[in-house]
Amino acid sequence: MEYLMTYGWAILIIAVVLGALYSLGVFNMSAYMPKIGPGACHVFRPNGPSTSWNVALTGSCAGYLPQYVAQFNGQSSYITISNWVSPDQISVSLWLNTIGITGNNNNNNAYQNMLGSVGYAWHSTMDLESSFSLVVSAGQSGSSFERAQSASYVPEKTWEHVVMTCGPLGLIGYVNGQAWATNPNPCTALNSTPANLYIGITSDLTHNFNGSISNVQIYNTSLTANQIQYLYNEGISGAPIYLQHLIGWWPLNGDTKDYSGNNNNGVPTAIAYNGSWTSGYYH
């Protein structure tokens, strides 16, 4: 007891300092991986966009972190991909770090849109409701429109891997490789009319995402649970899999170019690029 009374204050100070360093990510070894800038890894399509023969990854595609992530301000930031055609089946994979609902989302019914297409052709693919529960939805209006919402909440201020799959087995939303939201009804036959695809806002340009998004990948098939777990295990800089079915890849590592080889480049609006983004990333 005499020892504790004498040195207890020093032990307490050390504990507080260690806790502060941990919260700042000092002990997060993944934050010390080398970082590589835009275009370090991309898909090579020797026969041109929209072809799948001899498709391959090229460049530095493993063992690094992105130099930048896209920062959305919750009020005016979003990315537009024009003339997008929704496939009959779809999988969307991305990493996000949400920091709350602000600006034009500041109401009880607010939600944040991570990615979705115009109207009901591909409606509000992935949202965070005001409670930060994950919502995935897909399909045309009417009876073919499907929706699923998670009972758990997506944590704020940490990096999470979020995936949506839509196909004959239904609609499923995943967080960090685990299924969180499910709807068993098939959600095939999406509207194939070209429309705008948006990252970080709803199709009516009203509900913005507030936080950071990285490594957006879209496939024209419904990925399996094992494939989604593989994408999560790769980490935030993970390269796409199943390249023959990859139709869009936006790493958002300093630009909004499509590195899938399909030339679906995005147009940024009020997007910032954060080079000090690793806080909250543990993998």
Overview of the structural elements:
- The protein is mostly beta strands and 283 residues long.
- It folds into two domains: 32 residues; 242 residues, Jelly Rolls (Sandwich).
- The chain is 11% helix and 37% strand.
- The protein contains two helices and 19 strands.
- The strands form four sheets. Strands 5, 7, 12, 13, 14, 16, 17 and 19 form an eight-stranded antiparallel beta sheet that branches.
- It is globular.
- The N and C termini lie far apart (41 Å).
- About 6% of the residues have low confidence.
Low-confidence stretches: 102-110, 118-124
So what's the overall shape? globular
SS strand fraction: 35-45%
**SSE topology string:** HEEEEEEEEEEEEEEEEHEEE
Descriptive terms for the model:
283 residues; mainly beta; Jelly Rolls; 2 domains; 8-stranded antiparallel sheet; 7-stranded antiparallel sheet; 19 strands; globular
